[in-house]
Amino acid sequence: MKARLLLLTILLLSGCATAPPEIPMSAIDANAVARHQQQLDAITQWQLTGQIALFNLQTDERDAVYLEWQQAPTVLNLRFYHPLKGTLARLEETTSGAVYYDEDGQAYYGATAESLIQRLFALKLPLNLLRTVVLGKQPPQARAQRFQLFDEADLPAAVLTEYEVNDQQQLWRVQLAQYERQNNQLLLPTETQLENSQWRVKLRIRKWQL
């Protein structure tokens, strides 16, 4: 079997840039939060390009890869690549299952993309959680939320910048930063970080397509 998926690149992401002061939930207008979350809930499909990095906090190992991510309600497509070497691997998921293609085109099948990654690489990548996190959406079980307030011409919008959430019996701390307006309207983060006691996952987004 080929080397681990995230050992195929030379790029390593830097930390999230310094963000404006965060505001706790108690100091935020709930309507400003709801307005932004309702906008995010209306997104049914999206695409991004960027880089994803994985840090093993116990062994101090770190790996990174360029990424193209296409997401629809029932379809997931991930392409891992290097700008000079081209496609390194692909991961696809539909309602019928998931398949991972390595750099030689060898296919490996599984029930879900998340379970397939865990089986092939012994890595519990919180892919299902990341689908929600990357947009700036607030999972129902999130706690200890903090926000950044954007003063709009008509109504203010409050975007998530930090929270904690349990996923598959793991506690993740989520940080979101560098929100940018997409299509001259919707605010989406361009830097995302998830961290638990063992792993840190960073995603830097260069381009959103909605």
From TrEMBL:
Report the locations given in the UniProt record. Answer: Cell outer membrane
What UniProt keywords apply to this chain's record, in alphabetical order? Cell outer membrane, Chaperone, Lipoprotein, Membrane, Palmitate, Protein transport, Signal, Transport
Family statement drawn from the similarity comment of this UniProt entry: Belongs to the LolB family.
Tell me the GO BP annotations in alphabetical order. protein transport
Provide the primary localization.
membrane
InterPro entries tied to this protein: LolA/LolB/LppX, OM_lipoprot_LolB
Source species: Pseudidiomarina atlantica
A cellular component term (GO) from this record? cell outer membrane
Q: What is this protein called?
A: Outer-membrane lipoprotein LolB
Instruction: Indicate the quaternary assembly.
Output: Monomer.
Topology in membrane? Lipid-anchor
